[in-house]
TrEMBL record:
Functional note: Catalyzes the oxidation of glucose 6-phosphate to 6-phosphogluconolactone.
Listed name of the protein: Glucose-6-phosphate 1-dehydrogenase
Family stated for the protein in its record: Belongs to the glucose-6-phosphate dehydrogenase family.
SUPFAM superfamilies: Glyceraldehyde-3-phosphate dehydrogenase-like, C-terminal domain, NAD(P)-binding Rossmann-fold domains
Recorded metabolic or biological pathway in which this protein acts: Carbohydrate degradation; pentose phosphate pathway; D-ribulose 5-phosphate from D-glucose 6-phosphate (oxidative stage): step 1/3
Enzyme class: oxidoreductase
Record flagged with keyword Cytoplasm: no
High-level lineage: Bacteria, Bacillati, Bacillota, Bacilli, Lactobacillales
Keywords for this protein: Carbohydrate metabolism, Glucose metabolism, NADP, Oxidoreductase
PANTHER family per the UniProt record, alphabetical: GLUCOSE-6-PHOSPHATE 1-DEHYDROGENASE, GLUCOSE-6-PHOSPHATE 1-DEHYDROGENASE G6PD
InterPro entries according to UniProt: G6P_DH, G6P_DH_AS, G6P_DH_C, G6P_DH_NAD-bd, NAD(P)-bd_dom_sf
CC terms in the record's Gene Ontology section: cytosol
One Pfam family in the UniProt entry: G6PD_C
């Protein structure tokens, strides 16, 4: 593997994301030789840490992720980390980061290459981007910026942030992270769809009745009530993860496996996305909040949540396109907190067939994304001792060995940033389309809010409110996972 020379600055170097995800992922890339002798990482945050203290944190973070590491390698890795305390609004601090980056560039022969990673509270993204530009932090080699979600909270704020970033970075150097695009079973969608004639040839409205995407979590909002109040399930999970999954399911076949060809096909599909009217939102979208129990809080009692809040912790709805292989096929989705179990899955529901044996059961293709990787097909066969048709599962589940080979999503995505591959990142024009859709639903919900006293409350430990079973276009449709 290539040794990439680069100075990487992580804004939010003392934060949870850096600790849990970025440092362990960077160590794995170091072990693979992708970054080796010619890199340094500058961690920045408000706290007055020293280089030494950051290095100890990095070592702890790697240990917490994996106990069996080579300690000498780890020490050597950590020696590439430097700390710069930083107030995002203070321009002098950007000068300090710039000087440190230039020093490190000479020391490590980093060839003027820079990666800037925004891993702090999103309200600072715009300010940081602006100062990267006006304080001239851009290096003389490649310059890339990685932006965590949420990228804006509606189309207008996302566009504003995009303009601030554009001042220093062209679209082909902006890496908008969606960690779902680093997941094994999501990266597997296109190969599965396109490399098997059985699947490829039935991927159309002629055979597919509907598609169902469920991202269910058993946890509640935990300590993130403050953030969640500004977001809700629609912005937190649908705007990014669910829409990316749906795009991969419904896009046409790219002409090549390049980032350009894949994004072009995605965009072709998204340009045909039907934006729902307020009436459609009433019919086909549901929002709700988890209720309390005798011993646990409901959403409205969670810390930092307004007791009269109308922020949804569950959202369900429907997306349709006028183009692509699934043109006019309803794609239903639902996501929520405090549901029965952690389960991310996709169900492709095939149409019923009338045949010699009468009305056969519908068959499904199911992809389980989390907590384990699994694919299963249902097929029909004869009943053994009586007339009629029965349904059976053909299942493929990853073995422990296969699971052990799957890298963490962040490791994959960071690797792609280092090598300059944007395939699994969100392009601005995709994001703009996603926001257009979300804004339409949010606007309809906002206007309903005036007449709604309280959102629907759903019981914890189930699959959401019963109203989510009423969004289907026809009475013969239902959630496959129930
Ligand atoms: C994040 C959301 O993007 O995804 C969280 O902000 C959510 O609210 C998380 O819990 C779920 O990710 P995963 O990988 O655990 O399914």
């Amino acid at each position: 593997m290539k040794n990439i020379p680069v100075i990487m600055t992580i804004f939010g170097g003392s934060g949870d994301l850096a600790h849990r995800k970025l440092y362990p992922a960077l160590f794995n890339l170091f072990e693979q030789g992708l970054i080796k002798d010619n890199f340094a990482v500058i961690g920045t945050a408000r706290r007055p840490w020293s280089h030494e203290y950051l290095r100890e944190q990095v070592i702890d973070a790697v240990h917490e992720n994996d106990k069996n590491v080579d300690e000498n390698h780890l020490k050597q890795f950590a020696s590439h980390f430097y700390y710069q305390s930083h107030d995002v609004t203070n321009t002098e601090h950007y000068q300090a980061i710039k000087d440190l980056a230039n020093d490190l560039d000479s020391r490590y022969s980093a060839q003027g290459n820079r990666i800037f990673y925004m891993a702090m509270a999103p309200r600072f993204f715009g300010t940081i981007a602006t100062h990267i530009n006006d304080q001239k932090l851009i290096g003389s080699g490649f310059n890339r910026i990685v932006v965590e979600k949420p990228f804006g909270r509606d189309f207008a704020s996302a566009s504003e942030l995009n303009e601030e970033i554009k001042a220093s970075f062209s679209e082909d150097s902006v890496y908008r992270i969606d960690h779902y695009l680093g997941k094994e079973m999501i990266q597997n969608i296109l190969p599965m769809r396109l490399s098997n004639p059985l699947i490829k040839n039935i991927w159309s409205g002629e055979f597919i009745k509907n598609v169902q995407v469920t991202l269910a979590e058993n946890l509640g909002v935990e300590a993130r009530g403050g953030y969640y109040e500004t977001s809700g399930a629609l912005r937190d999970m649908v705007q990014n993860h669910i829409f990316q999954i749906i795009t991969l399911l419904a896009m046409g076949e790219p002409t090549a496996l390049s980032s350009e060809a894949i994004h072009a096909k995605k965009q072709e599909l998204l340009d045909s996305m039907i934006i729902p009217s307020a009436d459609e939102v009433k019919k086909a979208f549901v929002r709700a909040q988890y209720a309390g129990t005798d011993d646990t809080f409901g959403y409205l009692q969670e810390p930092n949540v307004d007791p009269d809040s109308k922020t949804e912790t569950f959202a369900a709805g429907k997306v349709k396109f006028t183009k692509g292989p699934l043109a006019n096929v309803p794609i239903y989705f639902r996501t929520g907190k405090k549901m029965r179990e952690k389960k991310n899955r996709i169900d492709i529901v095939l149409k019923h067939m009338n045949n010699l044996y009468g009305q056969a059961h519908s068959n499904n293709i199911t992809i389980i994304i989390d907590p384990k990787s699994e694919i299963y097909f249902t097929i029909n066969g004869k009943r053994i001792s009586e007339p009629g048709i029965r349904r059976e599962n053909l299942a493929y589940e990853f073995s422990d060995y296969e699971n052990s080979l799957v890298p963490d999503g962040y490791e994959r995505l960071l690797h792609d940033v280092f090598v300059g591959d944007q395939t699994n990142f969100t392009h601005w024009s995709e994001l703009a389309k996603f926001w257009e859709f979300i804004d339409a639903v949010e606007a309809a919900w906002q206007s309903e809010n005036e007449s709604v006293e309280k959102l629907i409350q759903y019981p914890q430990g189930k699959l959401g409110p019963k109203q989510a079973s009423e969004i289907f276009e026809s009475p013969t449709e239902r959630w496959i996972y129930e």
